[in-house]
Amino acid sequence: MSDSLVTLLIGISLLVLVLWFFWPEKGLYARWQRGRRMTARIRREDALKHIHNCEMGGSVASIQSIAGALGVNLNKASATLSELEDNNLAQISNGGIRLTPAGRESALHTLRAHRMWERYLADETGYSEQEWHDLAERYEHELTPSEVEALSAKLGYPTHDPHGDPIPAADGEIVHHGGQPLTAAEIDTPLRIVHLEDEPDVVYAQLVAEGLHLGMMLRLVERTPERLRFWAGGDEHTLAPVLAANISVLALPEREAEDPVGKPLSHLRSGESAVVLSISPVCRGLDRQRLLDLGLLPGTKVGVELIGPGGDPKAYRIRGALIALRDDQADRILVE
Amino acid sequence: MSEARAVSPEKLLKSARTLRWEVGGNVHEALTEAIYTDAASIADRAVSRPEESPKFDLDRTIDKIVTHRFWGFPVMILLFALVFWITITGANVPSAWLASLLLGKVHPWLSEIALSLGFPLWLKGLLVDGMYLATAWVISVMLPPMAIFFPLFTLLEDFGYLPRVAFNLDSAFKKSGAHGKQALSMMMGFGCNAAGVIATRIIDSPRERLIAIITNNFALCNGRWPTQILIATIFIGALVPAHLGGLISSFAVVGIAVLGILLTFLVNLILSRTMLRGAPSSFSMELPPYRPPRIMQTIYTSFIDRTIYVLWRAIVFAAPAGAAIWLSANITIGGVTIAEHLVNFLNPVGILIGLNGVILLAYIVAIPANEIVIPTVLMLTVLMTGAAGFDTGAGVMFELDSNASTLALLHAGGWTLLTAVNLMIFSLVHNPCSTTIYTIYKETGSLKWTTVASIMPLVLGLLMTFFVAQIWRVTAGLL
């Protein structure tokens, strides 16, 4: 018996050890891989990207802000900065840290790779909104300009990343979405979301949880220093100004603004039917293709015919066929 | 055209890029939608549909019952229990008949012919006792249940009921990151895993399809049911008074099948969170209108398909396995047969995980066909123990007429209740048979996923039997 006890204990400890090593994301192997990726080259590229962002945003980068953006201490940040100077990628003048043309080109490539990869993740894979940014942070350093060009061709030359940020063209040309923060928008005018800031993660996760997405129409109802109240996607939302500042909107021309807002298909009750207004842009890639293949187009009449034993999925009558859709898909189809 | 000046390619590209910015990111989308809308409006003009009739609608009435919150699942369980019951009871008679014909009559007859033609003993042994016997075994175990199960299943599918099952079960599968249609490929897997893997073609989402392929092996296939039933009957059924034996051993077998379903969900969950995170996924399924099934045609085509399939499998995979088994039991190195060498080599590992070397060797040679595990185990046990009274000859697979003599032989081979329990677990959780592995490769076209699907269950099975054995021994020591 003591023999088996020893074998059992050895077995358990081996199992624990293996799990500790290979546990996804938190295991030793995953940590080691992450640590290995954080090379000097990646630090330089991240620093260039940060300086570029500051220039675009009208502020000036400093050693402190670089250290903050890279998540390293001041010594490492200043070492990285002097490497940039040595390679003639950035200059320190009394006006602060500035990019040289070579440095700007490098920063734009990183930015282009990042946004192109996010576009790819959104269109062609099943990763969720919250995962795009972190994955793109990794791959932006691994793609060469020609690879990004090939990816761009494969994706049909996209112009914007899934958050609404413009993807810089291969020659560095960049166009801004031109929107204003929701906090500065006018009350009771039709607006369209043109950009959702994906940093910091926590804030972005909250915006995603609210069901907000690019291209969504909204109407501001109330604005106080404590909160903003608005209608979007058939529901009323309330956000703190800190969060709302990460949403950029553009006023809609009057003719487009006549579009009724609609409600999600999943809100229909058994036996009810409605007409499709649109498929939300959140529904992408394969999923969207399938819905279009089924003939779910604006103007199509859809009725709820069956509800599954668990309440989900539901079966809808679409163009004479009975099609089962899950609620999280039907949420993304707007009807009236 | 006065404007026909030469335009440089750079200029053209530049203006294309500017235009792309102006039309915005949704141009492909808008184009697609416009095409669909045009197609729809043309179709609407050209196709006239009968007026909607709100009369009694049979389809809707059936749907209301079979997807009902309370009635849906009982109806489903009842129907599937019926299919399995018909398969198991219906297969007994032809199985016994095929066995007595192929093993009891044709085998001695072939042996006589081979001898009268003056075949050397080794050639007769290799061809008749090795290759023919393994083939015959696979046919008699596999053919009758396959020929009954799959036509019944096809009938349900033809009628239109199976999509409703997927619809009912989708919410459960969704929680484990899988597709409701996996319920169907899993049920097919209870018949044959290779067929189950092919059945995953109905899942149109790449990620969920891969999950369904990899976990199909956890559906206990026809080739493994006989092992489970035999071991449960002679070891677990024997624990209780005789009149309860049948009931308890059935519970044990069903318990193993349920364990397989639980493992399916668990592995679904792990795969969708780790290796297959980020693979593209989409859900939609059509619930087609009910149709009266074309009974005779379905039974005929399904029967012929399955018969050809089983015969092909028996010849391609089982016959070489039979040859390997016979050779290993008859070629000696240093006065000891290869089989004995291998068994002795595997024994320490086997004992450690609560099995033994004989079982492990039987599972290695039975990779081509799980049906021959028990005959091989019995043959090897006789070979190892030198038990008297079995004059079949080395390398000749056999089964015993009475459960009591099987039990006696296995006890002589050192089997305990733990061996039996772990054999049942290992029979459920080990690498798929070579037909299934080959099918997985053909369906996925990927060496990586074929390897994962083959190795992962084996590792899981070794882990499970190891821990069961150690915990069993520790508790047995405490009692």
For the structure shown, list the relevant keywords.
heterodimer, A: 336 residues, alpha+beta, 14 strands, 43% helix, globular, B: mainly alpha
Characterize the structure shown:
The complex is a heterodimer of chains A (336) and B (479). Chain A is of the alpha+beta class. Chain A is built from 13 helices and 14 strands. Chain A has helices at 2-22, 28-37, 40-56, 63-70, 74-86, 101-124, 129-139, 145-154, 201-209, 241-244, 254-257, 285-293, 327-330; strands at 90-93, 96-99, 180-181, 190-196, 217-223, 228-232, 235-239, 247-251, 263-264, 273-279, 301-307, 314-318, 321-325, 333-335. In chain A, the strands form 3 sheets. In chain A, strands 3-8-4-5-6-7 form a 6-stranded antiparallel β-sheet. A 6-stranded antiparallel β-sheet of chain A has the order 9-14-10-11-12-13. Chain A is globular and about 70 Å long. The model of chain A has no long low-confidence stretch (mean pLDDT 83). Chain B is mainly alpha-helical. Helix content of chain B is 73%, strand content 1%. Chain B is built from 19 helices and 3 strands. Chain B has a two-stranded antiparallel sheet. The model of chain B has no long low-confidence stretch (mean pLDDT 86). Chains A and B meet through helix 1, helix 12, strand 11 and strand 13 of A and helix 1, helix 2, helix 3, helix 6 and strand 1 of B. Strand 13 (321-325) of chain A pairs antiparallel with strand 1 (285-286) of chain B, so a sheet runs across the interface.
